[in-house]
Amino acid sequence: MSSIQVIDRCAVLLDAISKYEDPVSLKILSADSGLHPSTTFRILAALMEAGFVDKDSGGHYRLGNKLVRLASKVRRGVDLREQALSIMEALCDAIGETVNLTVREGDEVIYIERVTPKRMMRVEQVIGSRAPLHVTAVGKLMLAELGEHFIHAYTGRTGLKAYTPHTISTEADLINVARQVHSHGFAYDNEEAEEGVGCIGVLIYDGSENVVAGLSISAPIERRKEEWVKLVKNAGKKISERLGA
């Protein structure tokens, strides 16, 4: 068997193991990979010695910790903006409105990338600008993920400063909204940061299911459409998948 053939078979077995949430038997892996059981056993033994595969007390196989460590290094090396930009551009083309990429820093979101439409009247978020969590669609989702204890502390630190008559201004209301957006998987900004501007936001996750960023669209409130929710959610999912989710 050539060294290239061995590598190919290793890749096939690793792919086969990765399809299962629980440890899987030699018999199943042999069937899934199309390899003879004795060949499957020998290759798995070599992968175990290298740390790429582990075996539990029942003799079932799972991906090893070495692969997990290598995957985390890949995720750290991924440029979030580079992975997101083409998807943001496609979303902007589909809806004709500004698309924003944000990350959380403390009690604020920071706009780190944006794609703007060619139309004259549009909402522009300046790259590098900041906004409090409670006034943005993405920020409310991040608060929901951080939990009610964090929201209580956040309220104490910020006082929930109102930027428009629509800004959420009480802890009880913020907790209630956080629960709602968490269950829906998306959030609106209903003129809470700026009068006349409405947003739709979703979260972006990495391979460890950690929140790494937020994706949103900003539009004049009278132009915002509910059917955009599905488009924004799909775009957020695509970016998350590129980050290993």
List its salient traits.
245 residues, alpha+beta, Arc Repressor Mutant, subunit A, Beta-Lactamase, six-stranded antiparallel sheet, two-stranded antiparallel ribbon, 8 strands, 48% helix
Structural summary, described in words:
This protein has helices spanning 3-18, 26-33, 37-50, 65-77, 80-95, 137-146, 148-158, 171-184, 228-242, and strands at residues 53-55, 61-63, 98-105, 108-115, 130-132, 187-190, 197-205, 211-220. The protein is an alpha+beta fold. It has two domains: 3-74, Arc Repressor Mutant, subunit A; 78-242, 2-Layer Sandwich (Beta-Lactamase). Strand 1 and strand 2 (61-63) form a beta hairpin. It is elongated and about 70 Å long. The mean pLDDT is 88.
Total discrete domains: 2
User: Reading side by side through the largest sheet, how are the strands ordered?
Assistant: 5-4-3-8-7-6
Number of helices: 9
By DSSP, the count of extended strands is 8
The assigned CATH architecture of the largest domain is 2-Layer Sandwich
The major β-sheet equals: 6 strands, antiparallel
What do we call the CATH topology of the largest domain?
Beta-Lactamase
Overall pLDDT metric: 88
% residues in beta strands? 15-25%
Q: Give the termini distance in whole angstroms.
A: 35 Å
Under the CATH scheme, which class of the largest domain? Answer: Alpha Beta
Q: Give the uncertain stretches in residue-range form.
A: none
Helicity level: 40-55%
Radius of gyration: 23 Å
> Which structural class do you get from the secondary structure elements?
alpha+beta
| Outline | elongated
Q: Please provide the ordered H/E string of secondary-structure elements.
A: HHHEEHHEEEHHHEEEH
| The CATH superfamily title of the largest domain | GAF domain
